[in-house]
Recover the amino acids of this structure.
C-alpha cells in the first residue's frame, strides 16, 4: 500500500483529498500545524473513512521538526503539498507573512524530499498564476502574467522552485492549478471552515443565507460579461480531491511526460457571480439577501479552464455541476449551524 504524506491535511482541500486517497487504497499521514484549521477535519475523515489519520502538528518553517517526520517515515512514496496561506487580500496587507510561510515551508519540505529521496511530489497551485488572461479558456500553455497578489506570487515562485528542483534531482512533480474550489463532501461531515468573515463567494453566499451575515455584496455588475458580473470556473472540492489521487497514481505508474507536468483543474465552464447566486437560490429554496456594490480591487474579469489535459491524461471525470456544488455547500452550512446549536445547548 503506497504511503502518501499530505501537508495541510486538515485544511479544506487537504482533508477532502485524504478521504479520496484512503478510499483508493493509500496509506496516508498528515502534517498540519493547525494555524488555519482545526482538528474537526480529522474527526470528519475518521467518520467518513473509519480510518484514524496520524497528523503531525508541525510547522514546515521548522526544518528539524519537519525532518523528524521523514526520519520516522522513510518509506514515503509521494507527497501532496497543500500547506500554505491562501487569502488574497491578507497577502496584500501582509506580504512577508506570505513569502515566509509559503516559500520557507516549501523549501524545507523539498530539502527533506532530496535528503530522503522521495520520488513523487504534487503541488497545490492555482489559476491565479495566469493573472488576468487575454484569451479564455486558459490552457496550461497560456502565458503566466505578473501575479495580482503576493499569494499568487508565492504560487508562481513555488512552481519555478519545484520545476528547477525536478531538473536537479530524481524526483518527479505535478503542478495542479485549481480554479475555484467550492462545495463540501456529500456526507456533510467535512467542508470549508473559513476563518473570520469569508472572502470567497460561496461561503459568503451560504453564511448570508443562514443568517450569519446580514447581507452579501456582489462586487460589481458593470464588467464586460454576459450579465456584468465576473466569470469564474467553480469546481467541486471532491472533484479536485480525486484529481490528486489520479496525479499520484499517474506518477507512481511513471506515465508522466516530463519531470514536472502541469494540469488545470476546472470544469471548463464559466459561471458568473449572479448565475452562481441563482443556482444557490434554486437548490436551497432560500432567496439571497444581496446588493450590487463596487468592483473589488484585484479581481480578474473572467477566467475559466481548458481542462482537456487533466481529463485525457489523468483520466479525470468531473462528477459535480454548479447545482450540486451549491447543494453540498448549503448542506454543510446547515450542519455547522446544527453543531453550533448543539454546542450552545450543552
Ligand atoms: C469569486 C468572485 C468576487 C465574494 C480566489 C483566489 C484563488 C482561489 C479562490 C486559492 C469574484 C465575487 C466574492 C463576495 C462577490 N484561492 N465575490 N462577493 O477571487 O476568484 O479566487 O479564491 O487558491 O487563488 O484568487 O474567488 O470566491 O473570492 O471571488 O461578489 O462576497 O465572486 O468579486 O468576482 P477568486 P472569490
Amino acid at each position: 500500500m503506497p504511503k502518501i504524506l499530505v501537508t495541510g491535511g486538515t485544511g479544506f482541500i487537504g482533508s477532502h483529498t485524504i478521504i479520496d486517497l484512503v478510499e483508493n487504497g493509500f496509506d496516508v499521514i498528515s502534517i498540519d500545524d493547525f494555524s488555519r484549521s482545526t482538528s474537526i477535519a480529522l474527526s470528519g475523515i475518521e467518520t467518513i473513512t473509519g480510518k484514524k489519520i496520524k497528523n503531525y502538528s508541525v510547522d514546515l518553517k521548522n526544518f528539524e521538526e519537519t525532518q523528524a517526520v521523514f526520519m520516522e517515515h522513510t518509506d514515503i512514496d509521494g507527497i501532496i503539498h497543500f500547506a500554505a496561506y491562501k487569502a488574497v487580500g491578507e497577502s496584500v496587507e501582509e506580504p512577508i507573512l506570505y513569502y515566509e510561510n509559503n516559500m520557507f515551508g516549501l523549501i524545507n519540505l523539498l530539502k527533506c524530499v532530496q535528503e530522503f529521496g522521495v520520488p513523487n511530489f504534487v503541488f497545490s497551485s492555482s489559476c491565479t498564476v495566469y493573472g488576468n488572461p487575454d484569451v479564455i479558456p486558459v490552457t496550461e500553455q497560456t502565458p503566466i502574467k505578473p501575479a495580482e497578489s503576493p499569494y499568487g506570487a508565492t504560487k508562481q515562485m513555488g512552481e519555478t522552485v519545484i520545476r528547477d528542483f525536478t531538473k536537479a534531482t530524481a524526483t518527479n512533480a505535478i503542478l495542479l492549478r485549481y480554479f475555484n474550489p467550492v462545495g463540501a463532501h456529500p456526507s456533510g461531515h467535512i467542508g470549508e471552515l473559513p476563518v473570520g468573515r469569508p472572502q470567497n463567494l460561496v461561503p459568503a453566499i451560504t453564511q448570508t443565507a443562514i443568517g450569519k451575515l446580514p447581507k452579501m455584496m456582489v462586487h460589481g455588475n458593470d464588467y464586460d460579461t454576459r450579465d456584468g458580473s465576473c466569470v469564474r470556473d467553480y469546481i467541486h472540492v471532491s472533484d479536485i480531491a480525486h484529481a490528486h489521487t489520479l496525479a499520484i497514481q499517474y506518477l507512481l505508474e511513471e506515465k508522466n511526460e516530463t519531470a514536472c507536468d502541469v494540469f488545470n483543474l476546472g470544469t471548463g465552464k464559466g459561471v458568473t457571480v449572479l448565475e452562481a447566486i441563482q443556482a444557490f437560490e434554486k437548490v436551497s429554496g432560500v432567496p439571497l439577501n444581496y446588493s450590487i456594490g463596487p468592483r473589488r480591487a484585484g479581481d480578474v474579469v473572467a477566467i475559466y479552464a481548458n481542462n482537456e489535459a487533466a481529463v485525457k491524461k489523468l483520466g479525470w471525470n468531473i462528477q459535480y455541476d454548479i447545482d450540486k456544488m451549491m447543494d453540498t455547500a448549503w448542506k454543510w452550512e446547515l450542519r455547522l449551524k446544527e453543531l453550533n446549536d448543539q454546542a450552545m445547548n450543552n
